[in-house]
């Protein structure tokens, strides 16, 4: 059992949750994740370790409640507990001092980006962080990322915050200007966003790392469910990744596999909605 | 009652038939197929045993279960004694009685099998073990051993780890099992389906260990949460039994299409996560009318029979050799056939054909013929030119095998591995690091439950010796 010591709402459907997990807090490195299962009978889902405090023995998760499992997890109150948290899993991010780097986050990818930005800042990089969302309500962690970055740029699709458009807009401007062009780019977000970033940096040959989000079951390399095509090789994202060289990733294959259970998820989503509605009606 | 029949009387008894759920009923649910012998059946079958002096059967069992002795006790209707004998030799008799490939082990060497049918040793073992579980009061209580003050870490909660933990606890050592998943049992839990091995059996075995003072910590991944060097410094000895959990890819076109599963994923979803077994299961699983499973081992049988239970109208085994070469247990093949599984033999997959929107539409195959025998003594399959054909399928499951998962070994550079990534250990299980032992599938590659248990037992004895040095 892993006790919840805090659970804050940062933005609509985005929770920051702190859990007691001393061993994971001590072992964890930037870029790694945990497999979380709320209770008996629930799904195992991967969540990035956003931050950790080895002394206090706690880890921080940023969770976007988008489906049945994430919603139930964020509903756990302070003092409550999560049955299973296993990790840290995945490879740690390769961090060096590149000098100037750009970190690009979209949607919940921004949460996954946070520990990377922190580690890159600690290594002395000069960071431009570009985060985006559909509207201001979906832009998360702006203050936290702003504190670690030299520049923070925000884009929204409806222009309700920052500049109107996509994260690729400001990134394109940076790349085009020799005085600002980054030595490395880290991008985490929806697959189409990561694909667009990879396409922008391929030509100028800028090293680009993406953190992939395939469906996972065990997270230990046992099931093969998280496989992605990277160059000529099939990789298991949970053990070989989740970070990969963006220029080699088959993004179309990844986004296609992510839809494998769309029908089943929608049904379950509807079922939990119903249950909630019924309880409220009582 | 005593077991004093004449050999002639014994020879006159026919081998028992295991009562089974009817095939059309069971192929729609996950209930155990083999219902277990009745007391009368068990005693009569036990009386078939000739109590041979040569004890051929014992030589066929990898852990040397005292077969004639436990059968004699059963034939005399002395179940407490039968259970006691069995327990002394085998920590998981209820599991082995169900899943051992008896026809190639103990029963293969049974004298009665030379002319007619071997004694049903597996069924009898299961009978006695199930009886013992229901009658704990009938057993002589095991006395709590004197604590030795030594501690041992066991990595992995599969049959090898469970066996070693039990043996070490019995010697008075303080044992902690670290398991990566959220539940116990290893392959027994996530791989072998409920209809062959009810999970309740694992729960009971684990409860016995807990009563003996063994601590089980799930959600601890050695190599990630803690490392082997850390365990080495915190415990007096370490036993590594993390299995062979890494799927082998087919490396054919279309392997990443939607609807292609590695056996481990398919089985884990259904067995460990209960997908498709509970109406409100939170983990999803795909269901299609046509399911093609590639492979001929127990894993392939488990996948195809599971697919059938999830509703597949055509559940197919695609195997590149012929049925006689299939490594699966004979009983699984028989059960699968009864359940309506199609066996497509001498057929090798060459590609998976997609639909327009990225799902599986067919398995492209090639017909094979058997050529001369290879190193393993099995006749090597050779492709027949121009024999390609497409087998319509909505799901393709790859059950061709697993190998060593490098997650743990990657963080223990002092551990010597062979070229396949398996840990190198001597007969006693000792590895290249003093005080670190290993056994089960991580040493042998994919093997059997009883071999893994045998390793656990031998390693526990060696660890005990090491700790008392
Ligand atoms: C390595 C890794 C790290 C992650 N870190 C975080 C994190 O820090 N915070 C966080 O909120 N989420 C993170 N995710 C994503 C998270 O695991 C998924 O959002 C979660 O599994 C969805 O479960 P659900 O039951 O709530 O939603 P579902 O009902 O399963 O899905 C809801 C919707 O999300 C889509 N979806 C399903 N799985 C994923 C996925 N893996 N990624 C993106 N979309 C998906 C579905 O197609 C569906 O449209 C991470 C994923 C990976 C692989
Ligand atoms: C589907 C299937 C059907 C089978 N059917 C039969 C059968 O009918 N008869 C038979 O005799 N054999 C059968 N086998 C083979 C048999 O199950 C295995 O040989 C046996 O389980 C091996 O035991 P083990 O203890 O070595 O490993 P496992 O059973 O694999 O257990 C290893 C455990 O270690 C855990 N682990 C892995 N890595 C780590 C880590 N880094 N840290 C902590 N824990 C870790 C795993 O999660 C797992 O729980 C079957 C195998 C499969 C896959
Ligand atoms: S453990 Fe397996 S091989 Fe040994 S006697 Fe029992 S069933 Fe036969
Ligand atoms: S070989 Fe067969 S008949 Fe002889 S003792 Fe063993 S089980 Fe009995
Ligand atoms: S999640 Fe199972 S192998 Fe990666």
TrEMBL record, chain A:
GO terms of molecular function: 2 iron, 2 sulfur cluster binding; flavin adenine dinucleotide binding; metal ion binding; oxidoreductase activity
Keywords: 2Fe-2S, Iron, Iron-sulfur, Metal-binding
Alphabetical list of InterPro entries matching this protein: Cyt_c3_hydrogenase_gsu (IPR012165), Dihydroorotate_DH_Fe-S-bd (IPR019480), FAD-bd_FR_type (IPR017927), FNR_nucleotide-bd (IPR039261), PyrK_electron_transfer (IPR050353), Riboflavin_synthase-like_b-brl (IPR017938)
Keyword Isomerase: no
Residue sites binding [2Fe-2S] cluster per the record: 223, 226, 238
Gene Ontology BP annotations: pyrimidine nucleotide biosynthetic process
Top-rank taxon, per record: Bacteria
Cofactor: [2Fe-2S] cluster
Residue ranges of domain FAD-binding FR-type in the record: 1-95
Tagged with keyword Metal-binding: yes
Cofactor note text: Binds 1 [2Fe-2S] cluster per subunit.
Record NCBIfam families: PRK06222.1
Protein name, per record: NADH-dependent reduced ferredoxin:NADP+ oxidoreductase subunit A
Native source organism of the sequence: Citrifermentans bremense
Automatic annotation (TrEMBL), chain B:
PANTHER family found in the cross-reference section: GLUTAMATE SYNTHASE [NADPH] SMALL CHAIN (PTHR42783), GLUTAMATE SYNTHASE [NADPH] SMALL CHAIN-RELATED (PTHR42783:SF3)
Residue ranges annotated for the FAD/NAD(P)-binding domain, each copy included: 151-456
One protein family per Pfam: Pyr_redox_2
Molecular functions (GO terms): iron-sulfur cluster binding; oxidoreductase activity
Organism this protein belongs to: Citrifermentans bremense
Cited NCBIfam families: gltA (TIGR01316)
InterPro entries, A to Z: DPD_II, FAD/NAD-bd_sf, FAD/NAD-binding_dom, Helical_ferredxn, SudA-like
Region described as Disordered: 1-21
Protein name, entry field: NADH-dependent reduced ferredoxin:NADP+ oxidoreductase subunit B
Domain Dihydroprymidine dehydrogenase: 26-135
